[in-house]
């Protein structure tokens, strides 16, 4: 393992207001525990989440997007630090960051995969902070390696399929095509549900590819409209068919009015209320073992609103999970 691509978290990032020492006053910066993954990992039997940052925007650069997401993990940490923790049983650890040095995305994804697999084998659920959506390939690979023969369903909340070819090398637009290729090589099914898809964000070729590959998807307008029963039926059917779920949230699924800090801002995007009910249902399935948030670009953010959105979405999942 290339240890030079791993760095422990700077504990000073987790600071914020203090209203008191008791559990009723707790905020994230008071409950999170930094852990150095360069040492021996202590296994856990308690429901615990381990954060990892994936400080990469190399995939965004290869995808001809706007770089800056490599600074996303710390922006999300700072936005989360003062959020209140309403359930004192929440156990949360911060395992530091995987960096992408000299444009070597493939090496960074491999290191991420190895750390994720180690955490899951030790009993933790993983939450990775991006970083471009190239995070998905390394994160999923680690989950799959840890779970062995268990079937893993991917739920991607995103305006894009991210099934592109990689003529310029693997990128933020290719992770789910890469995952499908890996699964095909071992004759395993590709279980992929994408929620929030938009016509203006995908070519006709990508829609045809998704259909040909058996991808399940829900259009953005169906998440916004009065079609909750249809969406719930599809989500329930998908989750029932798998042993475990990997959830990935791409922030460019949201309206640019509330998520400006992304490479590809979305003029017709979703609002948080279109998404949070489905996040709760996914967590409450009891099958969620890993999740991440991708495309957080602080250099394009406005007043930290996108980082705040990312932090609140993760908080929603954490609080429901305990």
Largest sheet: 10 strands, mixed
Q: What are the secondary-structure elements, in order, as H or E? A: EHEEHHEHEHEHEHEHHEHEH
Overall CATH class: Alpha Beta
Strand content: 15-25%
Q: Which structural category fits the helices and strands?
A: alpha/beta
Write up this protein:
This protein is of the alpha/beta class and 322 residues long. It contains 11 helices and 10 strands. Strands 1, 2, 3, 4, 5, 6, 7, 8, 9 and 10 form a 10-stranded mixed sheet that branches. The chain is globular.
List its traits:
322 residues, alpha/beta, Arginase, Chain A, ten-stranded mixed sheet, 11 helices, 36% helix
Topology summary:
Elements: E1 6-7, H1 28-31, E2 33-34, E3 48-55, H2 58-62, H3 72-80, E4 91-99, H4 105-121, E5 125-130, H5 135-147, E6 152-157, H6 175-185, E7 192-197, H7 204-212, E8 216-219, H8 220-224, H9 228-240, E9 244-250, H10 272-284, E10 288-294, H11 305-321
Parallel strand pairs: 2-4, 3-4, 3-5, 5-10, 6-7, 6-9, 7-8, 9-10
Antiparallel strand pairs: 1-4
Helix pairs in contact: 3-11, 4-5, 5-6, 10-11
Give the structure's gist in a few sentences.
The chain contains eleven helices and ten strands. It has 322 residues and is of the alpha/beta class. The radius of gyration is 18 Å and the shape is globular.
């Amino acid at each position: 393992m290339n240890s030079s691509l791993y760095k422990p978290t700077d504990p000073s990032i987790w600071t914020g207001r203090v209203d008191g020492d008791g559990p009723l006053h707790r905020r994230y910066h008071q409950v999170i525990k930094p852990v150095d993954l360069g040492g021996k990992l202590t296994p856990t039997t308690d429901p615990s989440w381990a954060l990892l940052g994936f400080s990469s925007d190399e995939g965004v650069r290869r995808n001809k997007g706007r770089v800056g997401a490599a600074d996303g993990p710390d922006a999300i940490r700072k936005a989360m630090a003062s959020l209140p923790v309403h359930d004192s049983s929440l156990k949360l650890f911060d395992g530091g960051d995987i960096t992408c040095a000299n444009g070597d995305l493939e090496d960074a994804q491999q290191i991420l995969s190895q750390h994720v697999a180690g955490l899951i084998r030790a009993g933790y659920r993983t939450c990775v902070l991006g970083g471009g959506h190239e995070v998905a390939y390394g994160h999923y690979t680690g989950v799959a390696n840890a779970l062995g023969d268990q079937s893993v369903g991917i739920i991607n909340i995103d305006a894009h399929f991210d099934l592109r070819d990689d003529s310029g090398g693997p990128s933020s637009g290719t992770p789910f095509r890469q995952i499908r290729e890996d699964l095909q090589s071992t004759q395993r099914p590709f279980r992929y549900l994408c929620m929030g898809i938009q016509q203006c964000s995908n070519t006709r070729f990508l829609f045809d590819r998704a259909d040909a590959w058996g991808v399940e998807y829900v259009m953005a307008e169906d998440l916004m409209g009065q079609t909750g029963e249809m969406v719930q039926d599809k989500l329930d059917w998908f989750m029932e068919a798998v042993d475990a779920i990997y959830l990935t949230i791409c922030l460019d699924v949201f309206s640019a009015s509330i998520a400006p800090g992304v490479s590809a801002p979305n003029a017709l995007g979703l609002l948080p209320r279109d998404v949070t009910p489905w996040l709760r249902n996914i967590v409450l399935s009891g099958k969620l073992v890993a999740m991440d948030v991708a495309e957080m670009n602080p250099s394009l953010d406005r007043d930290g609103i996108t980082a705040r959105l990312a932090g609140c979405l993760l908080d929603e999942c954490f609080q429901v999970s305990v």
